[in-house]
Sequence to fold (290 residues):
Amino acid sequence: MKKAKVMFIVLVLILILTSCIRANTPDGTAELNERETKQDNYIEKEDVKTPVEKPEPEPEPEPEPEPEPEPEPEPEPEPEPEPEPERTGPEVDTYNGINLNYPNWKSVIFRDDYLTIVNKTYKLSAYYEPSDLVDVNREYITYGTATMRKPAYDAFVKMREAASAEGLTLNISNSYRSYATQKRIYLAYLDSDSQDNVDTYSARPGHSEHQLGLAADFAAGSRSLYAFNGTAEQQWMENNAHKYGFILRYMPNTSHITGYIYESWHYRYVGDQAEQIKNSGLTLEEYLGY
Fold:
């Protein structure tokens, strides 16, 4: 009986010891680790299942539109030169079979200053008339009426006052003439003289500076313009006219350039360049390079 109890106790101890040994074996550790891993995975899955609110991303600012490039201006086309008008009507002028036009004449080239050339080459239209003509005071005219372009007239008044202060009387015999008036004067000379001679002392219609409104024939007092040469007034003008913008247009010994004989009475208003032209000793054609 005692032997049986002893055997039972030994068996129980063996079972207990075996259990303890199994708990400390690697297999036991692996089992334990596996249980812990399963538990961690469960926790992770639980974490995944929990929704997390993510902040909405801020909208990106819309890019500013690039300004459209301004179109480059198209180059202006160069104006085509206007064809020279056909010379008809008054531009081709005759009288009793006599041609009143110079060969190879050209239309006047107008300038912004007062130096426009009108001569035997450069011709004004029959219809040209300055827009700023003013009446000359009747007291300043030898006879009849006269008009001039305003800048020329204003300069003449100042010049006349200066001459008057020295006891002289400067008057105007002729100033602006229309195409028709110049034609009438020229034809009157043709009635008594050859065209070759007339061309040395009278301008053909369209070729007279008087039509510009800037030229004038001066006289001493009430005397004729042809009596102007040698007078005190003529000497005074020769020495002082340039101070007021006037030049002697047809000087002595220049007919081979100007085409006209010396005219002591014929002055042309040219403005600020008068003194320079006077001092140069050149004709207007030479001064401007014509």
In short: The beta strands are 94-95, 98-99, 106-107, 122-123, 133-135, 147-149, 170-174, 215-220, 246-248, 266-269. Residues 39 and 195 are 137 Å apart (CA to CA).
